[in-house]
Every structure is written in C-alpha cells, then in structure tokens.
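User: Earlier you gave me the apo prediction for this protein. Now I'd like the version with adenosine-5'-triphosphate bound, so I can compare the two side by side. Same sequence as before, with the ligand SMILES added.
Assistant: Got it. Here's the input I'm using:
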Amino acid sequence: TAQISISSMNFVMGFVTLLGMQIMLSIEETADFAREAIEWCRLFPPFVLGEALIDISVNYLTNEILGSGKDIWHWEVVGRPLQFLAMEAVVYFTILLVLESDKVGALRGALARLYVQLLEKLVDDGDASPTPIAARSYRLGNAHGGVEETKAGAADADDEIDEDVLAEEMEVATASARDFSVYLRGLSKTYAGSLAGVVRHQLGAPLRWARSAKRAPAPEVLKRAVRGVGLGVRRGEVFGLLGINGAGKTTTLSVLTNDVVRTSGAAAVCGFDVDDQGEVRKRVGYCPQIDPIFELMTARETLAFYGRIKGLDPDSVGAAVESILELLDLTLYADMIARSYSGGNKRKLSLGVALIGDPEVLFLDEPSTGMDPGARRSMWSCIEALSRRRKITIILTTHSMEECEALCTRIGIMVGGRLRCLGSSQHLKQRFLHAYEVEFRIEEAAGAPGGAFERFLAARLGPGARVVERHSPHCRVSLPGTAMPLGRIFEAIEAHQEEAGVLEYSVSQGTLEQVFMGFAKRQREERGQVAGVVYEDDDVGESE
Ligand SMILES: Nc1ncnc2c1ncn2[C@@H]1O[C@H](COP(=O)(O)OP(=O)(O)OP(=O)(O)O)[C@@H](O)[C@H]1O
Ligand SMILES: [Mg+2]
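And here is the structure of the complex with adenosine-5'-triphosphate:
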C-alpha cells in the first residue's frame, strides 16, 4: 500500500499537477491563480523536481537559441529548487522521526482507541465487550463436565464463562504484569469499519429497529475480533492457541507485537506494556502467519538483515545467522533467493527470522503450515529445546492438534474472540469429553441380536452404553463419562469377558480434536467454515 501511495503521489504531483500548472500559466485568465498555486505545490518534492527539470531545459533552449539564458546554478534555474529540496528533506525526515517515535506512536494508538470506543457507543449492537469478571455468570463443571452450579445473572448463554478461564482471569486481575512473561487482562480488539459503512449503518438504524426488536450486529462498522481475553503465560511455558479461522488468534498476537492497537484492556510482554515498543521489540521474536521475507534476498541476507534490526552487532550477526541456518536445516538453500523456495522452506526462514537475536518470548503464528512431517518434527524438537533449556516463553497458534499435544504445556481454545477453555491437553479431554469409547472384538454367536453381548452391555456397562458402530466381529461402544469411572469399566469387562463372548477389547478416551470440534461449533459467524460439523443444541461441555 505504501509503495502504491508513493508512486501515485509522485505521478500526480510530479506530472499531472505540474503539467496542469504549466498549461494554466500559459492561459491569461488562469495565470494568476497558477502562480499562487505553484507556491503551495512546492511543498511537494516531486513537483519541485519536475519544475526544476522544466526550468533547466527551458534555460538550455534560451541559451542555445537566443543566447540570453542564465547560468545553470542561477537562483531561478536550479538554485531555488535545490534549496527547497534540501529544506524539505530535513523537515520531512524530522517529521518522520517524530511520527515514528514511541510517544507519538502511543498517542496515535490512543486516538485510534478513542475512535473505536466512540463507534462502539454509537453502534450499540448489544454485543459489546464482555462485562467485568465479577458481574459475570459462570458455570462449574465436575470432572465429567456436568453442571454443578450456575450463578444467576446470565443474560446470554454466550456470556457464560468456563471455570478455568475465570480462574485465569481472576489470577491476572490480581497479579502484576511483571509476574508473567506474557500478560493479557481483559484484552479486546475491535476493528473499525470504513466511514462509508458507519454512515450506511446509521442511516439504516431506524429501519432495522422498526423491523425487529433484536438489534442487528454491525460487522460492516465494527468487527469484534478479540473480546476480553485474560491470560498469563509464565517464563518457559509453551502456550497453544487454538481456534477456527477468524477466531481471533492472529489478532491477539498482533496486539502483543503492537502490529494492531488494542481497543481496551492491558497487554504486557516481559513486564513492559506493549506500547513500550523500544523495550518489547528487543525481547520478542515473531513469526507472522504471512512470511515476512523479501523474495529477492537469500536466507543468509534475510537473517542478517533482521539480526541487525534486532540490534546484533556486525561481528556477531554472522555466527548467529549460521547457527540458525543449521538449526533449521536451511544451509543448502542459504545462498538462493527466497523466491525460489518451497512453501515449507519459506516458513522455516520465517521461523529463523523470529529466532534471531536471542528473544525471551516467541510468538509463532501457525509456524508449521506447509512443512513436511520431518521438518515439522525437527521444528518441534527445536521449540521444545528452546523452552526447556533456555526458558524461552512461546505462544503458538496452530490448526494441528498433534502439534499442540506434542509441544504445549497449556492450551486455550478461542471461539469468537474469547477464550472458552484453558488447560493442559489431558485436562481439557477430561473436562470436555464425556465419553469413553470401547472397541470390542466379539464371538459370532455372542454378537447375535439379543445375544450374550447385548445382555452384557445392558446389564454391566449401564444404560448409557450405546453402540456407535458395528461390523461383525467388531463393535464400538460409547460410554458416557458420568456412567462409571475408567477403573470400573475395566473391572466390568474383565469379570464378564467370557460370558459376553468378548475376544479382545480396548478402551480409549476421545481426542483433543473432538474437544476442539465441540468448541468450533460455537462460533456463530464463521459457521460455514467448520466443514463436517453437525450443528445441534447439545454442545460440548454443556450437558443441559
Ligand atoms: N484488518 C482487519 N480489519 C477488519 N477485520 C479484521 C482485520 N483483521 C482481521 N479481521 C477480522 O477479525 C477476526 C479475527 O481474525 P484473525 O486473523 O485474528 O483470526 P485467526 O484466528 O488468526 O484466523 P486464522 O486461523 O484464519 O488465521 C476475523 O473475523 C477477521 O475477519
Ligand atoms: Mg491467523
């Protein structure tokens, strides 16, 4: 966008306006206006340059034909334009430095925040950021996800908060940002729509209210990407953020890296507020979802470039680059330009960009997308070593449950911009998967309808036992987790194995993917994207 804007401005000011002014100068009625306007146009360097080139050629021709031209360095030939350009270079560069300074950055952030907060007030769509923790309802699940207690005051099922998420929110609310490597408290990010969208929405408001008492959401005006996330990640922890497309994972990481300005709440990295970019940048490595690499630079050059930006001195940057190339198995491609890389190798290079400069905290946005299984596993061991040996804190987003299980000490699933559950993979399975699955291989005679096996199921495994799949001699049975503990299931089968005609059996718990799909169903807006999910009322974690 910046490149296009600059090219367009150069074209408009250095060519179109310049030509227009020259034409207007030659017409008597507009000449006065043009002379006035030219003074203002000289604020734009491309205009000054174009004007100087014209003056040089006019002066040259006057010299050649009439012999009365001026010296090229004369004030009216290149003297004035050179002085203008020199002054403008100094002034504009100073303005740029001021605009890029942390203080002005914070001010711009504050203004952007104010604008979105104003819009939120204006477009009250009944879907504002969540109520403070204390006022919210929450439900407590027992070990099998059953509801034990529900506090009153829930206006909306969407406002319910999981007990683990609530505990985390409480913890960050009472702790200090310095206690955590990464700290989020009530973090919300709302993207503002275009001004045209706002106007259209406001004009249509009376119409919508007349049509329905329920307020319509206004995605063209406001897109609430992250809504009140509270999270504290401690040093050395590997935290996995899961969620379907559009759940708000990238937005959360972008707030932490200050790529986008948060709307409300607090966000800190290594105890420094994310607005304090001078401090934060030194400590963070970021591998964005879209590769931050330059197509015409080689891996070695790219890493050296980012290394220097991170503040490595020229003597040590070479060694750092070599160690990363080796670590990521990129030595073979180190001197080829990035454009020629495969998708997976580009991804590895992006990971390298995040790793250079010894960061204390790593944000990895879908780092393994496109990597082959071998590369993925070596990335896993690299991440594990970083967190275990060097105590680097890592937050990664992924769509691979396998990756989460392999790496993450804790996992959070985001739905519609909120954290819906939190905990280790084992904890999530225990809380949200209500069923064990038992796979039987049975004798043919026992498996007949009304036979010994069916009688055994009904009598010994309880009324909740349900046959999910059957092709003799195999039979898969689902048992609600609330029916009996794991030990009792084994006991019952072992005791009656022979009379039920069971030849072999295995008991398994569900997978993290099942937990994830259960939550994914909840995301209202992006429903169409969860392929294969059957939407029904009984959601995961809610046995209402
Ligand atoms: N610049 C933007 N302007 C407006 N809306 C945006 C912008 N960036 C993201 N969004 C919206 O915010 C929501 C969250 O987007 P985000 O990129 O954080 O999702 P994600 O969880 O990273 O998804 P994915 O798995 O596809 O990467 C989406 O609905 C998206 O459309
Ligand atoms: Mg994303």
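For your comparison, keep in mind: The two ends are 50 Å apart (CA to CA).
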